[in-house]
Amino acid sequence: MHASIHASTDYSPSQRLAWSPCAASSDAFLARVSDRRKLLVAEDRTGTLTGFIELLPDGYIDCFYCYPADKGTGSQLYRALEIEATQAGIAQLRVHASEAARRFFLRRGFTNSGRQQILRNGAALHNYMMTKPLG
Asked: CB–CB of 62/98 below 8 Å?
């Protein structure tokens, strides 16, 4: 997640630092995903994590990150998430997408409901509320 954020050219260095000042510890990550969310992960041939996506029971995609140099992982993770959501009977997916993620989700049929400004660690950032009906 940290590497993905800091590889982005859609945000300034100060915005990236405010968004992710340091990499999360594995304990912090595991504590965060220990609720009822569905966590899908991708690994390379050596077992190294290359990306993950999280789906909450109400259809909200909470986090979606891929290692910057890894191509195709995001598409594979999203396809698997959409299958999981459909099987769970979720009628609509929602996400607050970063600039790069907005482009990704638009290509997959999401509509943009608007840009919003957020403040994180003293820096102004923006994201987009996006939705996609399923079924």
From this structure: no
